[in-house]
Prior knowledge:
mainly alpha
Amino acid sequence: MKMIRIALTVLLAGVLAGCGYNEIQSKDEAVKGAWAEVISQYQRRADLIPNIVETVKGEANFEQETLTRVIEARARATSIQATPELVNDPAALARFQAAQGELSSALSRLMVVVERYPDLKTNQGFQDLRTQLEGTENRITVARNRFIKATQDYNVLVRQFPVNLTAMVFGYKEKAQFTVENEAAVQKAPTVDFGTQKK
């Protein structure tokens, strides 16, 4: 009886190895790791915002509406619980992505408005925060690209035969992917008007 169990265990291990089960596990963990890095970078950005807002508040007559938009967008972005399971729910991932996009937009607007305030432009503390924010935005881009690649690798694997049969048996499905926030705007060629530039 003991020999039969050993033989069945070896046979089962061989079948699982040959059917892609282990590779599914590996790719699934890669997606989780890449997602954790995305969340880490978004959190880094969220942590910088209060310092940026406080620095900007010190400037007399700074546009309160712009600051309010940043604060509200940060609150919405951080209110979404970004768990590893979020990547398995396309609607939840879309809400998360929309909230982060709104925060990016509010921060971009803030940086444009700052250009009108010479004291802020020369404030070393603000410039340091701005540099950190720019670096964080670059890290977010890198982390998102890694997540997109890891998710793509996983999704391709769970659709390939015979691994798709193993995925179906064990309940592994395709994971949600980041999408372009405004695909129509991206596809439209930008217009450049050199006639309005200052001489």
